[in-house]
Every structure is written in structure tokens, then in C-alpha cells.
Amino acid sequence: MTKFGVVIGSIRDNSFSKGVADALVAGLPADAEITYLKISDLPLYNQDYDVDSPEEYVRFRNQVALQDAIIFVTPEHNRSISAALKNALDVASRPWGQNVWAGKPALVASQSISGISGVLAHHVLRQSLVFLDMPTMQQPELYIGNVQNLSDEEGHITNTDTQEFLANAAKQFDTFAKKSI
Fold it and tell me: Which residues form the NADPH-dependent FMN reductase-like domain (predicted)?
């Protein structure tokens, strides 16, 4: 059984990123253990907290450490990832030398309401994951554009072709993760 942590870069209710994440999770094996890792309550990373970390940092770091593999789904904010997602990356990679992301296989999906599909956020995130020492599945690339046309009002993916594409990508990630662990 593989433990998959899911990090959703959007912290708004009914986000399209959550809908994409749910569609990915639907493709994972029935015996997979899925944990959605909450990032909305993490105080902004401050190196001063390395000595005496807030309980939210400790909880998040411990949850990340327990996962075998991580699925990241990010919106695009101003041609980059969201501040909440960047903060989560920083919190779990510190203090220096205690990076709990290291070695965990990663899958990146991005979404956008535009046709650009969050491609820039996707690549910004991938660059961070390289530094964080996370082997990242290269194919298929998961760029979901015009996501509002593929979803309902609650952000759930309703387009069957997109559901199938994401579920198949998750199956491939399961294989990739098992080879990497």
C-alpha cells in the first residue's frame, strides 16, 4: 500500500485545483492511502521559527514525512504558483538540512481558467521540486486549461475525457512512485 499525500495549491473553497486533485485520486489503487495535506493554516515561513516551530509547522512536516509520494495540483497566480503553495514548500524543507520532501516521488498538475493551462506555474513548481530532491514524473504533462468549462460550480471535474485522462495519469504515477520508493 502506497501512502499518497495531496497538496492543493489553491486554498479557496470549491477550487478547480481540488477538483483536479479529486479526479487524480480517483485513478489511484483502491488500497492506496490518501491524505490531503492542509496548507491553509500554515503561518508564513520565517527562519526565526526554525528554533521553536509553530505547531502547524510541526503537524505539516510530520504529515509530509509519513507520505511515500506527493501529488501537487497548482493554480497559476501571476505566472507562478500560489503564495500558499510556496509557503508549504518552504515550511517542510526547513530548518536547513531537515527537508522532509527529499526523495519523495512527485506528480505535478496545473490548471487555469485560461488556455495557457497554468503551464508557467507548473514549471516554476517543477524547478522547486528539483531543488527539494523530489523525483518528478515527466510524462504525461498535466496542464488543464479552460478548467471552468470542464467543471461544475463546486470545482469537480465533470468532463469525462478529462476525468479519464487524469485517472490514467494517476495510475501511471502509482507505477512511477513504486519504482522510486
Answer: 3-147
* Side-chain-side CA neighbours of residue 44 (13 Å): 2
pTM: 0.97
SS (H, E, C) the chain: CCEEEEEECCCCCCCHHHHHHHHHHCCCCCCCEEEECCCCCCCCCCHHHHCCCCHHHHHHHHHHHHCCEEEEEEECECCECCHHHHHHHHHHCCCCCCCCCCCCCEEEEEECCCCCCCHHHHHHHHHHHHHCCCCECCCCCEEECCHHHCECCCCCECCHHHHHHHHHHHHHHHHHHHHHC
Asked whether the beta carbons of 74 and 81 are under 8 A apart, the reply is yes
Q: What is the pLDDT along the chain (181 residues), one digit of tens a residue?
A: 999 999 999 999 999 999 999 999 999 999 999 999 999 999 999 999 999 999 999 999 999 999 999 999 999 999 999 999 999 999 999 999 999 999 999 999 999 998 888 999 999 999 999 999 999 999 999 999 999 999 999 999 999 999 999 999 999 999 999 998 7
The CA distance from 22 to 151, in Å, is 12
Task: Give the orientation angle of helix 160-180 with respect to helix 16-25, to 10 degrees.
Answer: 60
